[in-house]
Amino acid sequence: MRPLTFDNRFVRELPGDTDNVKLSRQVYDALWSSVTPTPVADPRLLAYSPEVAALLGWQAEDMNDPRIAQIFGGNALLEGMQPYAACYGGHQFGGWAGQLGDGRAISLGESVNAAGQRWELQLKGAGQTPYSRRADGRAVLRSSVREFLCSEAMFHLGIPTTRALSLVMTGDKVMRDMLYDGNPALEPGAIVCRVAPSFIRFGNFELPAQRGDLGLLAQLVDFTIARDYPELQGDTASKRAQWFVEVCRRTAIMIAHWMRVGFVHGVMNTDNMSILGLTIDYGPYGWLEDYDPMWTPNTTDEHGKRYTYGQQPYIGHWNLARLSDALMPLIKDSSILQAGLQAYADTYTETFGEMLAAKFGIVTLSDADAPWINQAFELLHKSEVDMTLFFRELAEIELERPDLAVLNSAFYRPELFAQQRGTWEAWLQLYVARLQQDGLSDQTRRTRMNAVNPRFVLRNYLAQQAIDAATEGDNSQILALLDALRHPYDEQTAYAHFAEKRPEWARHKAGCSMLSCSS
Ligand SMILES: Nc1ncnc2c1ncn2[C@@H]1O[C@H](COP(=O)(O)OP(=O)(O)OP(=O)(O)O)[C@@H](O)[C@H]1O
Ligand SMILES: [Mg+2]
């Protein structure tokens, strides 16, 4: 196996915990604790991402080395790794939750590849840390398969995200109450190795701010700017101001992409918001099937409906406002923070507007387009239409012979389509008239639309089928899905079965239509 070069700036430049016990506790005056992964019984590599391996400088022969399962199962370290768990807090479901920290994520080190790119490696489910609270620090197979596949699916969809290098089954069992209904059971354990330039979250800044530790806060802010935003220029105050605006901008772009593809994060607490604007923590996430802005996959949020699809742009703003509260004692000038929040709103509106235009195959949207676009979304909701299939098939409309039949496969309930047929026909006329104004050929429009409207997303039931097979010892579906999701905008007829709408059996099944945070 080719060696990796490590340059562990986070632990080298920032203060760490002086106490070396794993015991769950409050950690002050420090941003991390040194902690090694807890060994597992029989680590086996179930899958890996060749693209992420390549980022590190590894090829198939490196990944086939038996030491890979040992390292990414937490039983061995590579030369240069300095494992640690980060100390952070967060607002969860709208309230301040105090210290949280990496309860089960252990960063192994910051590898620097031949091109000079920094990729931090982090195990999720590697055992207890000082931040585990009352939990075991482990992760189950089902949640690890979901994290592994979705990280890579999101990347290939063009969405900023943490990546996943490997999926290792540990050979140990983990006790979980999957539905939080008082029926805990043993499940197979697994570990994902995630990869990102940085795993710093909004919550890393909030915790020292809440504790009034301005020195620590300033150190972390200036470290983040120096390591992760090296392009920012100027004196310290100016860099901090530009940085906050940039964090806001990136967060807006990330969330606009989620809305474009129908991704619902499910648990947008501030400890799950990356300072780089990357999608992080693939827990109870889900993909919209029938279009419903009020849908959330997270059973914990079933009644609160805080983290539904439609709320995400607003929650992004709310979370940035909490980050801005944390930075206020440091940045002091509220107009700077206000400018950042305004940049969030403006960037979101502009980016999502462009995406919406592209999704419908329109060159540029204007206010005059609002009525027919709003009507389209109302109809999608009322008629129970699959969002992904709708936009993909909409590209097949021909201006000379517009025919609603191209959309047939997107309807979950044909009887609703039949009932609302007149409204749909009227809408189609408006849409076609609007397309004619742009004068694009059918072919040009189709190509443009298919570049932003995926054929393949990680449908909730597909992930569950891959999990069920893996639990029986068959990883072939994980590999097939990983492969299909590599080219989400291509037709890939060989994978047509992964593009089908949710089957009826999955409508109310756990793991397919609803997920708890238990993982
Ligand atoms: N130390 C832990 N051990 C086992 N399970 C945990 C632990 N910490 C969190 N979890 C599980 O994960 C759920 C979500 O927790 P949280 O958002 O803190 O982070 P996470 O999912 O562990 O990981 P990350 O944000 O790093 O992706 C919790 O409801 C719990 O089920
Ligand atoms: Mg989390």
Describe this structure in words.
- The protein has 519 residues and is α+β, with helices and mostly antiparallel strands.
- The protein folds into four domains: 192 residues, no CATH class; 156 residues, no CATH class; 77 residues, no CATH class; 47 residues, no CATH class.
- It has 17 helices and eleven strands.
- The strands form four sheets. A five-stranded antiparallel β-sheet has the order 2-8-9-7-6.
- The model has no long low-confidence stretch (mean pLDDT 97).
- Bound molecules: adenosine-5'-triphosphate and magnesium ion.
Strand order of the largest sheet: 2-8-9-7-6
What's the average pLDDT?
97
Helix coverage percent? 40-55%
Helix-strand pattern:
HEEHHHEEEEEHEEHHHEEHHHHHHHHH
Number of domains: 4
Kindly report how far apart the N and C termini lie: 32 Å
Q: What is the SS-derived class?
A: alpha+beta
The best one-word shape is globular
Q: What is the overall number of helices?
A: 17
Instruction: Give the beta-strand count.
Output: 11
Largest sheet: 5 strands, antiparallel
Query: How would you classify the quaternary structure?
Result: single chain
Radius of gyration, taken over Cα atoms and rounded to an integer in Å: 23 Å
Low-confidence stretches: none
